[in-house]
Amino acid sequence: MHQGIMKAWLESSHLYGSNATYVEEMYEAYQEDPSSVSDDWRAVFDNLPPVNGASADVPEAAHSKIRDYFRSLAQEGRRKGAARMTDPEVDAKQVKVLQLINAYRFRGHQNANLDPLELWKRDAVAELDPAFHGLTAEDLQREFNTGSFAHGGDTMKLGDLVKALKATYCGAIGAEYMHITDTEEKRWIQQRLEPTLGRASYDKGVKTRILEGLNAAEGMEKYLGAKFPGAKRFSLEGGDALVPMMREIIYRAGEAGTKEIVVGMAHRGRLNVLVNILGKRPAELFDEFAGKHGESSGSGDVKYHQGFSSDFETPGGNVHLALAFNPSHLEIVNPVVMGSVRARQDRRGCADGLSVMPITIHGDSAIAGQGIVQETFNMSQTRGFKVGGSIRIVVNNQVGFTTSAHHDVRSTEYCTDIAKMVQAPIFHVNSDDPEAVAFVAQLAVDYRNTFKRDVVIDLVCYRRHGHNEADEPSATQPLMYAKIKKHPTPRKIYADKLIAENSISAEEVTAMVNGYRDALDHGDCVVKEWRPMTLHTVDWTPFLNREWDEAFESSMSFERLQSLAEKIAYVPETHPLQSRVAKIYSDRHAMAKGEKLLDWGFAETLAYATILEDNKRVRITGQDSGRGTFFHRHAVLHNQNDATTYMPLRNLAAEQGPIDITDSVLSEASVLAFEYGYATAEPGGLTIWEAQFGDFANCAQVVIDQFLSSGEQKWGRLCGLTMLLPHGYEGQGPEHSSARLERFLQLCANHNMQVCVPSTPAQVYHMLRRQVVRPMRRPLVVMSPKSLLRHPLAVSSLEELANGSFQNVIGEIDALDPKGVERVVFCSGKVYFELLERRRKENLTNVAIVRVEQLYPFPAEEMAKVLEAYQHVTDFVWCQEEPQNQGAWYCSQHHFWAAIPKGAMLTYAGREASAAPACGYPELHTHQQESLINAALNLK
């Protein structure tokens, strides 16, 4: 605001010379929190003239100059004869009132009534006492301006204001939001909390709906406890309000236009959510408790890990619900849910996240204790992983198994403090006040949809039984469980309240309890909003009950392939490239014209182009996926003048499949879990996660163990995710050599996934196309190369791409007389080329080399055909770079023994067993490599 306008403001107000202190303190309050002052004052301060001629977007300095500026304006106003209209003492107290309001917004939650058991010992917050701010008992009867406090008009008696602040910020809801830097978000929350004093006014219909939810939650647990005493069910009792909370979230989301909700949660309360929210038939659950199971193949999983899908009717339309399958690694499901949501949003063309919403339900110990939570929060606003915000609910039992929540589970005041890293608002709510719970549920949906950011609900409750129903919790928490035994259930507390206020009769309450129990006895769905699924857009039907050896067509005409090659080699002249990248694209022009054989990066990119031209989706993530860690892919090209990007793969045709290539956050666990979730909801395209080095998959081992390798066996959950894991012994030390091939092979069973080690550009091209073209969707684990990306022998022709197919086994390529072969060496990957070059150098003609390009499922038939010419050979060798206790030797040698002729011998050539994956000394690496090549070729 210019100086003249500022003068006019002061001259028209009651703020003259003696009120400069008031203005100064008001300005200090504004600097601490802009939302603490009224809109008028904020407009004044927002538009102060820059100090020392600085630009308006530079933070203001030299507060004394601001003070002097106000004083000079006030003095000028006095010279013009303006009269002072207010008492300086009152003006000073006015500022203190605004500071008191701000204190409640900042710290009111610390004195809120959050614990149903009233066991929390929380110190009084001094800043919430008017006396702390110099306000007296007499002041309680005085009228003060309420600034931006959105309740009761512009002025209120201080006593009434304090009551309103306590009701809003120290009742059953403790709102933590002042850590948010965006003023608009804070003002939005204030406008939702303060006018109603943090409460909602519900009619009988909504109150009855809330009570029905509590009745269902309690009725379900009591029924199971009576019918299956002692059986583990991980009861929701104590946190019963989760059920009405979920119902209100779904209703609110449906009204806003949401079409799908994906839920992730651990085992606490899962059975209750399955039956009372998603509409799983109680009879099916009871059969599971009784040990019955259907005809589905596989190992199955315990009932409290199972997923479910259904449609849920709301006044705004049906909403499809999907509860994700979840292992006992509690929080790992969170990024899986986010990936599934992102895939559904992409398929719907939903850029703002409104049509598909994630809900994750956490335990208080787990959300604070498991690092995957931080990783998932960290990716929540990143380009490749954002989903328009998620609703995160914490079922806060105040105990972790047997661990004290406040002393041993965390080092922060709240279990939800981790959410502050992304400035998510946190609404703590007492679970024994279900109307407050419903209010917060609706508020959370509206916030998420308005600002496209995460929001956290901390449902402060308790656990009526032990960690499971067989535990005795009083052994470790005697005081808590003595209190719990005497504490009425949430349903009874709320029912008594409604009866007392004449909202519902005692007879209606009794009828509700009996009616729900009768419905459980009947065994049919107890969710009246349940509807048959019609909104689910993921169709896995074409990929069900498929076998590996089913025929499929993947060939492509040479002309079409060459046309695509020219398109992906084209870069506009207006997009200058870095010199090394320009050389790569110059070579690709030559490759497209047939003047040069194809290298790895070009063949790989060409595979993506063919998939996109068939109108399939391609998604690739990894820490260097755009460029490629080893400077080989360059699918995303950076303009050297203005840093804009160009993707040839997005410029193939007017109608083509979408492609996203994203350099991911520096995480393996959360990103791989996200991509697993994405692939389970996107069957038709190609979803790839690429490790920077294959070794880094170690950090995501839980995803590989609990989801990727066993998801189909446990849950019947198909997934076509591809993992590219750079693997090869290049002398780069223990942590940059091995993708731990042995771990994947050890997990292989029941044809659960593919493990491939392609050795040529044509092989990677056909392998990637095969993953999409054939009617099979299972994970593909690729030991991808490093040095082979530029190896002079690792090249292929366009004809090999157009006319070939993936070869699970590649036999001898040199013109050796099979009759003269005395030894056959089996190998995979980079070591093949070292064996080949050394054999050629030594002019050996009695050793044949066979490449195994797919280690699992083991290609027994293809291997038999390759070995037909060597039935006379008795000397077979498996050669590998990895130490003997690693690699493929121990996990796959039974396949090799089965493949070789009867009476033949199989021996090992490779590094000796080692605790580390590789050595760190270049000289030792070279010596070991030389020794294993010599041993394989029988050289001295």
Automatic annotation (TrEMBL):
<keyword id="KW-0786">Thiamine pyrophosphate</keyword>
<keyword id="KW-0560">Oxidoreductase</keyword>
<dbReference type="InterPro" id="IPR011603">
    <property type="entry name" value="2oxoglutarate_DH_E1"/>
</dbReference>
<comment type="similarity">
    <text>Belongs to the alpha-ketoglutarate dehydrogenase family.</text>
</comment>
<comment type="function">
    <text>E1 component of the 2-oxoglutarate dehydrogenase (OGDH) complex which catalyzes the decarboxylation of 2-oxoglutarate, the first step in the conversion of 2-oxoglutarate to succinyl-CoA and CO(2).</text>
</comment>
<dbReference type="InterPro" id="IPR001017">
    <property type="entry name" value="DH_E1"/>
</dbReference>
<dbReference type="Pfam" id="PF16870">
    <property type="entry name" value="OxoGdeHyase_C"/>
</dbReference>
<protein>
    <recommendedName>
        <fullName>2-oxoglutarate dehydrogenase E1 component</fullName>
        <ecNumber>1.2.4.2</ecNumber>
    </recommendedName>
</protein>
<dbReference type="InterPro" id="IPR031717">
    <property type="entry name" value="ODO-1/KGD_C"/>
</dbReference>
<feature type="domain" description="Transketolase-like pyrimidine-binding">
    <location>
        <begin position="598"/>
        <end position="791"/>
    </location>
</feature>
<dbReference type="Pfam" id="PF16078">
    <property type="entry name" value="2-oxogl_dehyd_N"/>
</dbReference>
<dbReference type="GO" id="GO:0030976">
    <property type="term" value="F:thiamine pyrophosphate binding"/>
</dbReference>
<dbReference type="GO" id="GO:0005829">
    <property type="term" value="C:cytosol"/>
</dbReference>
<dbReference type="InterPro" id="IPR029061">
    <property type="entry name" value="THDP-binding"/>
</dbReference>
<dbReference type="Pfam" id="PF00676">
    <property type="entry name" value="E1_dh"/>
</dbReference>
<dbReference type="GO" id="GO:0006099">
    <property type="term" value="P:tricarboxylic acid cycle"/>
</dbReference>
<dbReference type="InterPro" id="IPR042179">
    <property type="entry name" value="KGD_C_sf"/>
</dbReference>
<dbReference type="InterPro" id="IPR032106">
    <property type="entry name" value="2-oxogl_dehyd_N"/>
</dbReference>
<dbReference type="InterPro" id="IPR005475">
    <property type="entry name" value="Transketolase-like_Pyr-bd"/>
</dbReference>
<dbReference type="GO" id="GO:0045252">
    <property type="term" value="C:oxoglutarate dehydrogenase complex"/>
</dbReference>
<dbReference type="GO" id="GO:0004591">
    <property type="term" value="F:oxoglutarate dehydrogenase (succinyl-transferring) activity"/>
</dbReference>
<dbReference type="Pfam" id="PF02779">
    <property type="entry name" value="Transket_pyr"/>
</dbReference>
